[in-house]
Structures are given as C-alpha cells and as structure tokens.
Specification:
This protein has 71 residues and is mostly helical. The chain has a domain of 42 residues. It contains 3 helices and no strands. The longest helix has 15 residues. The chain is elongated and about 70 Å long.
C-alpha cells in the first residue's frame, strides 16, 4: 500500500448494479404495523424499512402462505 495517493488522478463512478439491488415501491400499511416495526427498529438499531424488507424477503424465501377465511 502506498504512503500517499494522488487523488486528482482518481475518478469515481456509480455502481452499475444499483438499479438491480432494490426497487422503490409505494405501499399502504396500517399505522399499528408501522409503529410495530419502528419500535422494533429502535431496539435493534436498524431502519424500519430494512426490517420490513427482511421480513418480506424471509416470507418469500420460505414460501410462507397466508391462510385467510372470509366469513
């Protein structure tokens, strides 16, 4: 590793895979659901959006099915 680097010769570039990583969506959630994830985010020190994403990713990975019965 060099002791000094010539920063004027370096150039930055954007991550070419950034669009493949996450997709922005608009979703309407109950206030209680958002409050739950915000409270959980305070405990674990992670943004609540990331927690929701992790939970949904786990559901998709394990193929969880929601069983609803309308009466």
């Amino acid at each position: 590793m060099r002791a000094q680097y010539e920063l004027s010769k370096l150039y930055g570039r954007r991550n070419p895979y950034i669009k493949c990583l996450k997709q922005p969506v608009t979703i309407r959630l109950d206030k209680n659901t958002v409050a739950y994830f915000k409270e959980l985010s305070d405990k674990v020190g992670m943004p609540y959006q990331n927690l929701i994403n992790l939970y949904l990713r786990d559901c998709a990975f394990t193929h969880k099915r929601l069983h609803l019965k309308w009466s």
